[in-house]
Amino acid sequence: MATALIHMPASARAGEIIEIRALIAHPMETGYRPGSDGKPIARDIIRRFECKYNGKLVIAADLHPAISANPYLAFHLKATTGGALEFTWSGDNAFTQTERKQLTVQP
Q1: Is residue 100 part of a domain?
Q2: I need a surface site. Which of 5, 29, 62, 97 has the fewest CB within 10 A?
Q3: How confident is residue 66, by pLDDT bands cut at 50, 70 and 90?
């Protein structure tokens, strides 16, 4: 399991635009680099990132081999109601990781 770091405020005012930053520790191996034995290291990349706010998809990104190790994404979200944000990374070798954060919205 990879380590995911999500930085976002725990609370916001209704209508406020908040910044969310998400990083996951992952090697993002392209499959082109040779290993110590001279054979290519098997491809292992995260192919997709999604964030849902109270079950509704708010951002999705398709990632490709050119993305560096430990992919970092930052985006903005309008806080409308309190609830859960669900962050999902999925990729090669049946890799899937989901993290959840709560957002409290005050009037």
Answers
A1: yes
A2: 62
A3: confident
Whole-angstrom CA distances from 10 to 26, 72, 76, 103, 106 are 26, 20, 14, 5, 11
Q: Which spans in 1-100 are helix H?
A: none
Parent domain of 100: 4-31+41-106
Sequence-ordered list of residues with C-beta below 8 angstroms from that of 37, at least 6 positions apart, any chain: none
> Which pLDDT does position 48 carry in this prediction?
98
Residue 24 lies in a domain: yes
Q: What is the CA radius of gyration of the chain?
A: 16
Which are the contacts of 97, defined by CB distance < 8 A and separation ≥ 6? Answer: 1, 2, 4, 24, 88, 89, 90
